[in-house]
Amino acid sequence: MAAPGIARHLAAFAAGLAALATSGCSTVRFYSQAIDGQAEILNKARPIPAVMQDDGVSARVKQKLTVVEDARRFAGAQLELPADREYARYTDLGRRYVSWVLFAAPEFSVEGKTWWYPFVGSLEYRGYFTEKAARDEAKRLQAQGLEVYVGGVEAYSTLGVFHDPVLNTFFHRSDAELAEVIFHELTHVKLFLPGDSDFNEAFATANAEAAVRRWLRSKGDRAALTRYEIALAKDREIVALLLATREKLRQVYARREFSPEQMRARKALVFAQLHTGYLEIRRRHHGDSLYDQAFAKPWNNARLNTVSTYNDLVPGFERLLQSHGGDLHAYYTAVGKMRHLSKEERRKRLTE
User: Fold this and answer.
1) Is the pTM of this model over 0.70?
2) Whole-angstrom Cα distance, residue 195 to residue 212?
3) At 2, is the secondary structure helix, strand, or coil?
4) Residue 2 falls within a domain, yes or no?
5) Are strands 166-167 and 89-91 parallel, antiparallel or unpaired?
6) pLDDT tens digits, 288-346
7) Is residue 165 one of the residues assigned to a domain?
8) Under a CB-based contact definition with an 8 Å cutoff, are residues 154 and 3 in contact?
9) Full residue range of the structural domain in which residue 204 is found
10) Quick check: 115 and 270 in contact, CB under 8 A?
11) How far apart are CA 315 and CA 341, in angstroms?
């Protein structure tokens, strides 16, 4: 599912946008790796029907592609998502992740560092098609005193700039979770507001989760729907804990009377409470969580931002969908109208 140490839906975010933004960035090296990485994805893509007829392709890959095709059809017919030309081809990259993304934040701030890209505006992450490039940049930022986090990414969207293929990196997940990735990325193609990562990712997250429920109900697969809801419930508890931790840290960092040593001590206490809270949630729930791997490594301000970006505004979108009685056309119209608001006005409306 998600890369180790990254929240549930971070695996499904548009990390490649950072890699595709190849003008106005700081180095030719960044340009080169971005172009080469995207070219590899497109050049290796094969039509799914051809892959399904290839005796050299494993049964597992063919089964996952069958799920993708079913989800695509449902997305176009029932969800008003632009599925016609997206995910109609398959690329096997021969590696676990398609790209790696870098998050960074100051030692005493929960506000992440941002990078500006043409067409998509400011984003709180920077994408690379090689892990080494991401970690080299992370070391450079660490030397400047920033906290950093690098994580592998399984999927992303180019927002319709290219017709994105299905990647082998999608397949480390259940069928319901795989469908969620497809719905998430197609939501990005439908609507993406430059410079507002929190809005874009929360919209895609909320829309994809609601879409999976509709998809499983349409198939009459109650058992899969139950498993999906149980997994979401546990993950939601953990997300709430992480967001509360981020807010606690925000309050600690606002205490200007603290010395750096006092600030670090209180920060360590908040992260210790986070770990204790996670163990309590795990004790009360059966089964593994997609966050279990995340808690095997230390948390910092940069890692917390990987969670807030994808989840902070999700409840607002869920309330908006509910207010329209589940009518997707009315819901999408209401969401689309928010493009005319400022980032602050959108956040206010979704958190009221």
Assistant:
1) yes
2) 27
3) coil
4) no
5) parallel
6) 666 777 888 889 999 998 887 778 899 999 999 999 999 999 999 999 999 999 999 99
7) yes
8) yes
9) 8-351
10) no
11) 19
